[in-house]
Amino acid sequence: MKNKIDHIRDKLQQAFAPQYLEVIDESDQHIGHAGHQGGGRHFAIHISAMSFDGMSTVEAHRLIYKALDEMIPDQIHALKIKVVR
């Protein structure tokens, strides 16, 4: 079974064929937070993809959330997104 980072990366690769993609587990920064639940649920994504050209940041974020929809909220509690232009 793939780990969550690999699963997130695969879903984003399939959806957007990004030129740059970094997925970071930031769960250790949220110890004590109710959503921490043992870690592995807070992620940051840095992504650059031609499919976001001409879109607002909000539009790009909506597409990313849609691509990861089946993982939210059970596998992903918090997601920080940076669309690199």
Description:
The protein is α+β, with helices and mostly antiparallel strands and 85 residues long. It has a single domain (4-83), classed as BolA-like (GMP Synthetase, Chain A, domain 3). It is 28% helix and 22% strand. It contains two helices and three strands. The protein has a three-stranded mixed beta sheet with strand order 1-2-3. Helix 2 links the parallel strand 2 (42-48) and strand 3 (78-83). The longest helix has 13 residues, at 4-16. The radius of gyration is 13 Å and the shape is globular.
Defining traits:
2 helices; GMP Synthetase, Chain A, domain 3; three-stranded mixed sheet; alpha+beta; 85 residues
Model regions low in confidence, pLDDT < 50 over at least 5 residues: none
Structural class designation: alpha+beta
- Which radius of gyration do the C-alpha atoms yield? 13 Å
Give the strand line-up of the largest sheet.
1-2-3
Under CATH, the topology is which?
A: GMP Synthetase, Chain A, domain 3
Full CATH superfamily name: BolA-like
Helix-strand pattern:
HEEHE
User: Helix proportion of residues, in percent?
Assistant: 25-40%
| Count of DSSP H/I helices | 2
Please state the overall shape, judged from the principal axes of the Cα atoms: globular
Query: What is the second-level CATH architecture?
Result: 2-Layer Sandwich
Give the N-terminus to C-terminus distance in angstroms. Answer: 33 Å
CATH class: Alpha Beta
Please, how many domains? Answer: 1
Strand percent estimate: 15-25%
How many β-strand runs?
3
